[in-house]
Structures are given as structure tokens and as C-alpha cells.
Design goal:
single chain; about 250 residues; alpha/beta; four-stranded mixed beta sheet; two-stranded antiparallel sheet; 12 helices; 6 strands; membrane; transmembrane helix
Length: about 250
């Protein structure tokens, strides 16, 4: 599977790194994830793959259940407890760093990346910065993953309270999120750090886009890219605007 990464300066010396939305990949993952415990057990018990592959299947199953629960909160009536819970969840998600979102988008199915960037940027510097994000991610998300795992038993104890165990579900989500980001870091590092491969296939891996350069030129004002230009870039290159804005608002 190919992944398209779009890189461009968004505010001062801050660059945006975002993956184009791939609907087919999402559909493929959903279709291959069991929807019930019975289906999960059947698939694991008949699976001849290594233990880590079954662990991956279990993680995907839990992730699918969490996503469905989140969609249920999103559709809750205005003013209801579930609706307020969804709003609180959005505030927590807003604190997730954009680099983590990028790394989580690089799944194990990705076999190569195509990096789109404005011609004004040096291709080697673009690749170097991506490699730095991947290397830093392997260190940070491994540390945070183990930290989140140690908190799970503590938050589980809060289940005795007559309220939804929000801390447990948040720590569970962060555990999953850091694990996915760690996997993505390792995969991205593998894809962008093989110098000989990058040299041989540079024309396939790197794509200087004049159209991206023009959109940036028209929308750059007061030291950053304005929201109109960001919207146009997101539409053209199929990016998630919320994720892109996180880079611009990064402190």
C-alpha cells in the first residue's frame, strides 16, 4: 500500500506533515476486523500466524469497538450526558500532538511513501525532518506506551464508583494510541532512512508540487498560512483540516 505525505511550511519555521486521506485503506481495515467476540475468537483460534499477529488482531478489534462507541457519543442528543461526554472527549483529543496523528496514520500495510512538498524546500531536508520525527517517535511513544500500561490497573480500580470510568477509557485509548504511533514511527523510519533506496527511487519517492507552492504563496500572510489557503490545500491534497490546523497552532 502506498501512502502520500504532504509537507509544507505552515507558520514561521514550523512545517506541516500530514497524510492524505485514503478511504480504500480504511474500508480494507474495517472489512478485515472481526465485529464480534465470537468472530474474534474463531479467527484467533484458526489463525496459524505468529502470536504478535493475533495480538494485532485483538488491538484492531478493541479499536473498532472504541470507534463505534465514539460515534455513538457523537450522535447523542444535544445537552444529554453522552453529548457532554463527547464534548469533553474532543477537548482531550485536541491535546494530542499532530506528530502523533501522523505516525498513527502509517500502518503496517504501508510499503512505500510518496512525499509531496513545495519546490522551495530542499528534498533532502524534507526527508531528514521526516526521519527525525520518526526517530523521536520511537523513543517518546515507547516510553509513553509503557507509562500508560502501568496506569491501566490503577484506573480499573475506579470501576467501583457509580459513574462511567472515564479515566480508564482515556488511559486505554492513550495506550492504544501510543502503541500505534510507535508502530508507525518504526515503519516510517524504515521507509525514509534507507539512503540507497531513496537515491535510486528519488523521482518516485519525492514530488515537488508547483500547485502546492502557488497555494502557499497566495495564502501566506503575517508569518503563517491563512485558513482559506489551508482549506484549499486540504481539499486539493485530501488532508484532514483539523490535523493540519494542529500544526499551525503548535506552540
Amino acid at each position: 500500500m502506498k501512502a502520500r505525505l504532504v509537507v509544507f511550511p505552515i507558520k514561521g519555521k514550523i512545517w506541516c506533515f500530514s497524510r492524505s486521506i485514503d478511504q480504500s485503506a480504511s474500508a480494507f481495515n474495517s472489512a478485515n476486523t472481526p465485529s464480534t467476540v465470537k468472530e474474534l475468537w474463531k479467527k484467533i483460534s484458526t489463525n496459524s500466524k505468529p502470536l504478535n499477529a493475533n495480538a494485532e488482531l485483538l488491538v484492531d478489534f478493541i479499536s473498532n469497538k472504541m470507534n463505534n462507541a465514539w460515534v455513538g457519543l457523537e450522535k447523542a442528543p444535544e445537552g444529554s450526558f453522552k453529548n457532554k461526554l463527547h464534548g469533553f472527549g474532543l477537548q482531550l483529543l485536541a491535546r494530542v500532538k499532530p506528530s502523533e496523528v501522523l505516525l498513527k496514520s502509517i500502518s503496517k500495510e504501508v510499503t512505500n511513501v510518496r512525499i509531496t512538498y513545495p519546490p522551495s524546500l530542499n528534498s533532502r531536508l524534507v526527508r531528514r525532518r521526516l526521519r527525525h520525527i520518526a526517530m523521536r517517535g520511537t523513543v517518546l511513544h515507547r516510553k509513553y506506551f509503557y507509562g500508560s500500561v502501568t496506569l491501566l490497573p490503577l484506573t480499573t480500580a475506579l470501576a467501583v464508583l457509580p459513574l462511567p470510568n472515564i479515566p480508564f477509557f482515556w488511559v486505554l485509548f492513550r495506550t492504544y494510541s501510543h502503541w500505534r504511533a510507535l508502530q508507525g514511527s518504526e515503519k516510517l523510519l524504515q521507509l525514509v532512512s534507507d539512503y540507497s533506496r531513496a537515491q535510486s527511487f528519488s523521482s518516485e519517492m519525492m514530488e515537488a508540487s508547483k500547485e502546492l507552492e502557488e497555494l502557499l504563496r497566495k495564502g501566506y500572510e503575517n508569518g503563517s498560512v491563512n485558513e482559506k489557503a489551508i482549506s484549499d490545500i486540504c481539499i486539493k491534497f485530501k488532508l484532514n483540516k483539523i490535523d493540519v490546523l494542529k500544526w499551525r497552532d503548535l506552540v
